[in-house]
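Checked the freezer inventory, then went back to the computational side. Two predictions to log before the end of the day. The first one is the construct we discussed on Monday; recording sequence and tokens without edits.
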Amino acid sequence: MPKEILPRRSVLYVPGSNARAIDKAQTLPVDAIILDLEDAVAPEQKPAARQQVEAVLESIDFGHRELIVRVNALDTPWGKGDLAAVASLPITAVLIPKLESARQLEGARGALHMGGAPDNLPFWVMAETPKGILNLETLLDSGQPIDAIVMGLADLGKTMRIPRGSERRGLRATLEHCVLVARAYGVTILDGVETNLTDDDVFEEACLEGKEMGFDGKTIIHPKQVATANRIFGVSPDQIVSAVKIVEAWQGAPEDTGVMMLDGDMIEALHYEQALKTLADNRKIRQRRDDEE
């Protein structure tokens, strides 16, 4: 059975070394926060960042927001220490970068186990290397609890020798492949970040394109991107009206109805199921808004 897809419209990267950014994240209407110990932290700051993330997770209530820690890769001097440090903390998942093999996942699970983590603590995995993407199905077949795939466009674009700024065009086929894999295995998939913070239209276009490709949400790097990501990856008023009409019509039809017409469109069971999911997603999003107020 497919896993429940939670609202993950906006997923904000926050540097583990930046106390001010962590404080700000607590006030933002994001669905999830990734406390980053990897790319966003300079090597000389990594030990202090790890300590700060530990202290934050032990002392601060982030409300409804899912909390994920992106650790350093296992083949770095910090990876295993990061895993041991976060193993017993109240987090939603651990995000593993540069992941390419099930053996790496087993190593990460071993380090978490040594730190006291429960066996069912989920992984989120970065899809950001050619080998990792080619092995994505193997990773999801590994038996490890993988809950989400996160696209890493910058690293992947660099490896693929795509000019900076052209990653979305150059990687479109790869992005679509990763969405297909995510749907086959019933996991969330999040689009990569947009680093252009000066042109809001560029970010909106990237969100719209990601939504059209089937992504569940957008990873973001700045508070100014939250509202747009929530709007585009959320449920619009028009979608709610349409879903209500489909549900009411289908439930009011005779029991042996397999196909029906509604406002000139043919409606089947799959459309009814999609409408139910739309309304369920909207309820979850509204509940999160209520929790913030």
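The second is the one RB wanted added to the comparison set:
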Amino acid sequence: MANTSVAPFDQRIRIATLRVSFLLALPLIIFTRSAWLEPGWFFDLFEVVGIMLIITGVLGRFWAILYIGGHKNHDVIRVGPYSICRHPLYLFSTIGALGFGMMLGSVVLTAVLGGLIFAVLSATAAREEAFLRAEFGAAYDKYAARVPRIWPRFSLYNSPETAVFNVSTLRRNLMDALVFLALIPLAEFVEFLHESTSLPFFVIW
């Protein structure tokens, strides 16, 4: 029997918090310049790794949605990406943020952006789990005791050969994917600003 005294976490709070966090980080993104611009091949390596991480984040979110779409807050999903961590959507969102930092060519920005997103999503996951524990009781406690919250344990992976997914949920996730893909041209625009304007910058690693 569901415990109705605990309501599902309002995802608008997560979205608003992420937006505010990005705005707070924006001056650091714009007014810092990578110390790795020379030699050029080293900065290019950062960019390539960053793009790969962003694409991994997008594809990983789609992978997770295939399993959770239409089931969120209704079932405890334990297979596919949910067999290696309890919040794979947040895992891949963090990977995307790390990729953006890498595209900017800065270890510091990678750590700041990745750490900031991870902290926000970890707090969100904790709030969500209060509802899930109230809703599913011992079934969720058993799942949580075995599977880590966000950082994956790949040795736990298991999945059926087929999965049923919700088309409308997958379509909505497309918009989230476009947000992550927009980080690629945004990073290129920041690089353009650094190379073609006289804005004051300070160099960070």
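For RB: The CA atoms of residues 80 and 151 lie 15 Å apart. The chain has one domain: 11-204. Let me know if you want it refolded.
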